[in-house]
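fwd from M.: "can u put these together and see what the complex looks like"

so here's what she sent:
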Amino acid sequence: MVSLKRVAAVAAVSMIGLSACSGTDSAAPAVPGEPKAGDLLADAPVAAAADILPGSTMEKIKKRGELIVGGSLDAPLLSQQNPVSGEVEGFDADMGKALAKYIIGEPKVKIVNSASETREALLANGTVDVVFQTYTITPERAEQVSFAGPYYSSGLSIAVKKDTTGITKPEDLNGKTVIAGANTPAIPAIKKAAPQAKIVTFGSDPECVQALKQDRGVAYVQDETLLVADAQKDPSIQVVGKPFTSDPYGIGLKHGDDQFKKFVNDWLTKTQGSGLWQRIWKNSLGTVVQGEAPAPPQIGSVPGS
Amino acid sequence: MSAVLDHLPEFWEGLLVTLQLTAASFAGAAAVGLVITAMRVSPVGVLRAIGTAYVETFQNLPLLVLLVLAVFGLPEIGIKAGLLTTAVVVIALYEAAYIAEALRSGVNAVSAGQGEAARALGLSFGQSLRHVVLPQALRTVIQPLGNVFIALTMNTSLAAAVGVVDLTAAANRVNLAEAQPIPIFVGAGLAYALIAACAGFVTGRLERRLGMVR
């Protein structure tokens, strides 16, 4: 039985080793010389004192000296905690810091690790001020929370193992087992595009990739950006076809706070106009996607925003 | 409320999977737990040591760690089963440690003279365990076993983290579409509470009928 314990210990240690390795891999894009978030936000816009209306949400945040953001700590390129520095890095994280700088004058944020199950409740009871968490704007959600933006538009793609044939479009997934991230928009999207597909879900992106490689499913549906990053790290998987959905991400705000919504939309217009939005993109998602920053989506252009 | 009512089929399917997980893993846990208890009270030192090591190993590792290791680790060494099967086996092996401890406390509650008398009458160790000790032991641990059953029911929700679409995973998926976490998770919680209440009711009845007054 000692041997079983030893086997368990070895397995546990190798798992730790594995996760440590993948940790260094994902930190790799942070090459020395690349602009850090601090430099990035050095010339970020700050709101004029007149814009911080008395009694408003903005004033409350400014008095507190810290913006409380609902976000993830485990989404690569979007909002991921760097295990070495403890900083949260990525597109969503930097956008949150830029908004904090706009309100407070300094990029001071506190990220509350929120999940898809809790976002609406966290906004409604005031635990967080805003949510930056690949929060797709939908009319159903817009009944619970207000959305500023959209601030980014993404789409779902399909990844398969290198030698897989016969899967090029979402309809090909019918009757097959498909892997998706738990609590991601991929689940309803697969149900819509391929109603006969069987969906299995895992908590995080690395788990989904592992499951794909271990044949728990024939395909993995996820945000294209993440899949491109995965395929770059791991040559045994590949992305097929073009994105088959368009997901407008919004900034979640407390329902009915129109004053704050207008304020955030004004800030978004300014960051896009000044080129800050594009620089934040280049510094995060742009490290795996080729080419220049895409055109940001039109603010208020989708139902629910 | 409509968020729950509109998705009753999804909840129902999730509930069925949860019930399957619960029933299958409790049956497995009871069988393994019984064997471990027999080992722990046996006169053979090696068997006692193996039983103790088993209980200590599984009680000291979190169930989620075991599930993740089994689902993602075992295929690396060529052992691969379906997600539901893997979850049932892991939960059964894990809960067997708790069942074994509950049973052992029952065996210890049977006075040593009973076992000695059985052996003096010429029964083998297995026979004395089967006909004399265990029937009395089981009657004293109905409530503790009921508690293990309830804990096991709640623990099945961890299978949602490794791809099994149980009640918890179903609630997550419904919430993803409806964005109404409070009614949805209250609904799922009520379903778990109902299973636990049934278990409590059954063990209460069993204890009144079978429990021994000393």
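replying to her w this: Chain B touches chain A at residues 49-50, 53-54, 57, 61, 65, 68-69, 72-73, 75-76, 80, 83, 160-163, 165, 169, 172-173, 175-182, 185 (CB under 8 Å).
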